[in-house]
TrEMBL record, chains A, B:
GO terms for cellular component: fungal-type vacuole membrane. Keywords: Hydrolase, Magnesium, Metal-binding, Phosphoprotein, Zinc. Belongs to the alkaline phosphatase family. It is an enzyme of class 3 (hydrolase). It comes from the Eukaryota. Signal peptide: none annotated. Binds 2 Zn(2+) ions. Mg(2+) binds at residues 5, 104, 106, 253. It catalyses: a phosphate monoester + H2O = an alcohol + phosphate. Its EC number is 3.1.3.1. This is Alkaline phosphatase. The keyword Zinc applies. It comes from Actinomortierella ambigua. The gene is PHO8.
Amino acid sequence: MMVSDGFGPASQTYGRSYWQFATNRTFNTQTSLDQILIGASRTRSSDSLVTDSAAGATAFSCALKTYNAAIGVDPEGTPCGTVLESAKAQGMLTGLVVTSRITHATPASFSAHVVHRDMESDIALHQMGDYALGRQVDLMFGGGRCFFLPNTTEGSCRTDNRDLLAESVDPKYGWNKAILTRNELNETHLDAGVQLPALGLFHLDHMNFNLDRMNDKKIAAEEPSLNMMVDIALKTLKKAGFKNRSGFFLMIEGSRIGTVVDVVYMAAHNNDPAAHVHEILQYHEVVQTVRNFVRDNPDTVMISTSDHETGGFTLGLQPDPHTYPDYMWRPEAIARSKRSTEVLMHELLSFTGTEKERRTFVKRVILEEGLGVTDATEEEIAFIVSPESPPVEVLQHLGHVLSKRANLGWTTQGHTGVDVNLYAEGSQADRLRGNHENTDIGDFMVSFLDLNLEAITAKLNANLGWFKKTRDGFAAAVSKRDSSQHEKTGR
Amino acid sequence: MMVSDGFGPASQTYGRSYWQFATNRTFNTQTSLDQILIGASRTRSSDSLVTDSAAGATAFSCALKTYNAAIGVDPEGTPCGTVLESAKAQGMLTGLVVTSRITHATPASFSAHVVHRDMESDIALHQMGDYALGRQVDLMFGGGRCFFLPNTTEGSCRTDNRDLLAESVDPKYGWNKAILTRNELNETHLDAGVQLPALGLFHLDHMNFNLDRMNDKKIAAEEPSLNMMVDIALKTLKKAGFKNRSGFFLMIEGSRIGTVVDVVYMAAHNNDPAAHVHEILQYHEVVQTVRNFVRDNPDTVMISTSDHETGGFTLGLQPDPHTYPDYMWRPEAIARSKRSTEVLMHELLSFTGTEKERRTFVKRVILEEGLGVTDATEEEIAFIVSPESPPVEVLQHLGHVLSKRANLGWTTQGHTGVDVNLYAEGSQADRLRGNHENTDIGDFMVSFLDLNLEAITAKLNANLGWFKKTRDGFAAAVSKRDSSQHEKTGR
């Protein structure tokens, strides 16, 4: 099960077109995804036309519609059994490979049960195995180490002082010692795989954008690409699954396609077209890796879809109605960009020079070297330089400065409601043809793997002692949601 | 062959969601289109990632990529045989049913050959039968009467004084007397069909938006719905085709889904969400009519796709990042709108009262009664009232005032490059599954109907005397395109 987070139809056209430009391919060359398009997924949640990633992933994992922010719980906030847990109960191996924090909404919805996505300290506990079912995951690769460190440690995000890196190797959970860098996960693992259960946490927060990994050797030494992680995961799970005669379930997420940046910037999405396109290209590579695996293993199936669109993204907009019917987009503007706006923003926030030096820094380092923009207007520069501009708006502004030069457009920092593309290949993939509710994808996995979500749900709910803390959190979360709802309908 | 002009993926989600709201259906109810989704079409033209409707339709009709603005000609401006012409050569009956001017880009690309879409006086001649192949079309329903009237007549758009309504009944062309109103095309025709060759021109310009037809009895008396026109066309062509043992080819276009308004407002697109949704709902009805026909006639196939997306349209945007992860859209705002912004703009332009009266008129007639907006801000009102606001911007502004209240977004007045949905049902429809170039749809029709486009192309090019005027126009058109290109890359 592959999830391309925040990846709408226009982003696929954009990714293909940029790839054709950057690799000198003809306009009619298909990407790895195009070759396996079979339909579309309708993405709404139980309480909104526009879903968030939590409800979107729970639709896949529990095959039910739930409220935005719900992680593996139904609309009443009660735990629902997931395909990962049920696969484990059938004796299969299970894995999660992502580029966000491993505790983020999508992987969490397969491996944890909390009433609000922000309860990531609890999510990490469940993922480690400290909840009703014990350890359910055999392989976890991604970011989010900060939720595994005690809050007495610098860089920790936990609300308590538990040290999950230490606890996880306890026989109760049985994890092997966590892998923390790309250098530890080296080429030998590409053939041999890793020891299960395997925990790889390659960043405190989300892993870096692929654009930054490509252009910064330090990042490349610390963080593997999604494609490398997936390659190792597939080999490991196949080998071990073959030995156990068990098979496996693996969830892969291209987590940062929608360019979410939520610890630092309060859940804004960057609207960063260069970071966006390089996440897409990396995802295309991963799709090819998984497709190769599926072809070599005829009893497997792969599905790729998105939880929702992000940004109201469009490409090739018309800058001026008088040029009709001529339209254009400028991939070369994107190709000049060498760093994500996220990284550039960090650099800007830590800059300490005088105002004059700051201006030079913005022009040279941020705009010219970073974004590849050499023709910024006075107005565009001034907004970035001004200490009064709110960081979240400067971040957006940087994305828009670049987007404008490529004739790309965005309508929102958030998600939108458009149906997303559905791709699949392998055994029984034809059954997913056409236009579906996102929950149909969950139903397909249940049927394909012969799972029993009801049995897992019953087991989770038999004794809800483990869920008390989470349930208590629910009232607070609901009250927060209601007051926010109230504000919005009050206008 | 059904073309939903300017209808992108987000518009289908929008149409479905509004329909579910307006008719009290559950969220998982599919529309007539959803049930037959089979893939996507890549829409680029030979000279742009973003196509216009002319190159978009020529990709279907001639099965080749050509430049934006090209009508039934290849990238060198040479005529290319169309599926309609080739079907005629095979002895089939042919038809065009649209809601734009019949001389507009999409129907023109099946039935005419000119180097620029603006040459609509020539297009009407070709459609009547005054070109190399003689009359090729057996049934034409739509708007665009102004290009059939001599320029000595009020309301004419022709560049010459030819009276095509009179000429068309000449035995040389053989058309029956043109049908000009909905009342002439009455219920008896729903069973009996009409006499072929049939010419129905129900408006001087584009036919009105369905929203306005629904809310204005005068329009409803003058103009049939697209669904009624299609119903009559199918019955007529089936009956006559059965008699001739010939079969038929019919091109249907929901021409105004992208809400283009190009005579009055210089090719802007309205970004009018209410007119947009009612064009979509009407199109859904037409799809059901055609699907019923295809099911009753197992040797037929129907295809529905778009030429391109319009507006960079998105739904359910996030008005404020702080409300994350709650999103909403407000269909009730759309339901309150009773008139298209096009009609409201006409009313505003013909208003002659004092400035104070104008202000009252804008608030009451335009905003409250027309758009259903009762909470317009001072700024929103002032821009509409000001005589200094350019009409094309006021038109857009009206659409945005309404869109904002529904949480809908647009990035452009023009088209965008996203792949569009591909729908099909009937004989051999499975061959169109997956992601395709738009020209593949032309190739499919050629193969399905066993056509020979090369033979028609050869016939068209055997003696290009008829094409001289058009060829002369080409140099001017190219020079216009080049200078516009120059301006744009000059920044």
